[in-house]
Amino acid sequence: MISKLISEIKKKNAPIVVGLDPQMSFIPSFLLKKSISERGESLEAAADAIYEYNKGLIDAIYDLAPAVKPQIAMYEQFGVPGVEAYKKTVDLAHEKGLVVIGDIKRGDIGSTSEAYAIGHIGEITVGTRSFAPFNEDIVTVNPYLGSDGVKPFIDVCNKYDKGIFVLVKTSNPSSGEFQDQTIGDKTLYETVAEKVVEWGGMSMDGNYSNVGAVVGATYPEMGIMLRKLMPKAYILVPGYGAQGGKGSDLKGFFNEDGLGAIVNSSRGIIAAYKNEKYASFGEEGYAEAARQATVDMIKDITESVQ
Amino acid sequence: MISKLISEIKKKNAPIVVGLDPQMSFIPSFLLKKSISERGESLEAAADAIYEYNKGLIDAIYDLAPAVKPQIAMYEQFGVPGVEAYKKTVDLAHEKGLVVIGDIKRGDIGSTSEAYAIGHIGEITVGTRSFAPFNEDIVTVNPYLGSDGVKPFIDVCNKYDKGIFVLVKTSNPSSGEFQDQTIGDKTLYETVAEKVVEWGGMSMDGNYSNVGAVVGATYPEMGIMLRKLMPKAYILVPGYGAQGGKGSDLKGFFNEDGLGAIVNSSRGIIAAYKNEKYASFGEEGYAEAARQATVDMIKDITESVQ
């Protein structure tokens, strides 16, 4: 799968991913009004509005960006209808040729991790038929439970040509509370990174592995070090834009081949119309604003990285 | 919420929780046949079979056990229909007076953790109406992202009188890879446990906190130490039975007041009919087998703890 993602990144000359994190406050009010008028004040109305919002965004950016990253929490908060909107978003993104990175941060013990892996990137059999229940291409995985929580995902990656990004150093302010603690002569995130290298060897796909890592743009120095420590792991970089990461911070996340990292922006793109810079698009022009913000982000990143 | 759980544990004299982890191989074939005959070979048929299976189990154990713990991965693996079966299971358990511990192991950065917290133990507003999308009473939380991933859950606990169990030392064989690493003069799981104490102080409910901890029955010596380190945290103890934890291992997880721990068994109860000891119940008698296994588990635990 990572070779497919790389091919799409090269084709569009855009090492970026658009985060589809439809917080209620981002959704233009005309979309919510419309869905409430059709479905009443209900979780279903919210889910419909989310899907319509995403549809506008995907239509506006699919020819520019190689991938989208829906954050499942923002759908799950609307219960079963929200999860259904998540699944419909995955399917729509696929129809438009986008790689879908499901930001699910799952992780559990063996058979339970296997169930998550099957549900999200694998297939399950009912009677004689097989189904791909959520059908993302790549998902994010939490490593706290160790190898037997991660390996079931790798087995499923190998069986269905899929990928994972393992949380190594997250972008949030308190990520250091545990991740930066020193174990012997290295930190916990380095210890996890070494495991990512080991796990990565189990699922190579060309020069890179289907087992990548999440490292926040907000920690550029750690990015440089982790880039060297995990030379064959693709790095998913959240935290660009709204969380404070800048294009100029990102060079160190890339390898000398110009590959090795994919930078996410969520609110900076999908809520661009709320940003002064793009305010002229107005609420009705939220999708065009997102398109312009995507163009600008690609320019910022590619110029910074070269 | 923890005071409600304690009151139910005392009322039933049973510091146990029944894990509703409906792996496909546990579901009696007559249930799946029936749902396939009604819905065809589909994710919906699997979801119906799961719900019917759970219904039999809940009816058989609700007067014995204070709580159930559905493992959401086992539902999520069947996609949207599976998640719907999860939600219906939560509702049915509530109708029968059970406390519901959603084993969701979520954890993310601030606003995203908040979305998970709202969706699972809080309420969300659409227009002028509020909804409790999943409505569990307590959920499990992964701490790898640090305080700003956990605090949104605590805020929601305080607002809606709910609880969380934070993963400290999990029951699986490779849990030590990261959790047992030594940071200065203590391990990572002790470092997390100290945070659980700090977080716990933010949501006290009587003598115990709404912020509890997960510590596996498979590590009884660590249980003794963690019990002392987190005196006011309730401990959710997985790993009893099928994973190898014995009643005699469990005394150290409890405080001298006889409280402080709740022991989970999943397959040992819900798939008891597959165990030689309960084979005479047969597949059709899976619920009665589960009832007998629950009676036996309560006896084993209460005798071992006294």
Oligomeric state of the chains present here: homodimer
- Pair of chains with the largest interface and how many residues each contributes: A-B, 71 and 71 residues
How far apart are the first and last residues' alpha carbons of chain A, in Å?
Answer: 25 Å
Pick out the low-confidence regions of chain A. none
Content of β-strand of chain A = 15-25%
Give the tally of β-strands of chain A. 13
In spatial order, strands of the major sheet of chain A run 1-2-3-6-7-11-12-13
Would you write up a description of this structure?
2 copies of one chain form a homodimer. In chain A, 45% of the residues lie in helices and 19% in strands. By secondary structure, chain A is of the alpha/beta class. In chain A, strand 6, helix 7 (147-160) and strand 7 (163-169) form a beta-alpha-beta unit. At the A-B interface, helix 3, helix 4, helix 5, helix 6 and helix 7 of A face helix 3, helix 4, helix 5, helix 6 and helix 7 of B.
Summarize the model shown.
By secondary structure, chain A is an alpha/beta fold. The first copy, chain A, contains 12 helices and 13 strands. In chain A, strand 8 and strand 9 form a beta hairpin.
Features:
homodimer; 306 residues; alpha/beta; eight-stranded parallel β-barrel; two-stranded antiparallel ribbon; globular
Write the layout of secondary structure elements.
Two copies of one chain form a homodimer.
Chain A: H1 2-12, E1 16-20, H2 29-39, H3 43-61, E2 67-70, H4 73-76, H5 79-95, E3 99-106, H6 110-121, E4 124-126, E5 129-131, E6 138-141, H7 147-160, E7 163-169, H8 176-179, E8 182-183, E9 186-187, H9 188-200, E10 204-205, E11 208-215, H10 220-229, E12 233-237, E13 261-265, H11 267-270, H12 286-305
Helix pairs in contact in A: 2-3, 3-5, 3-12, 6-7
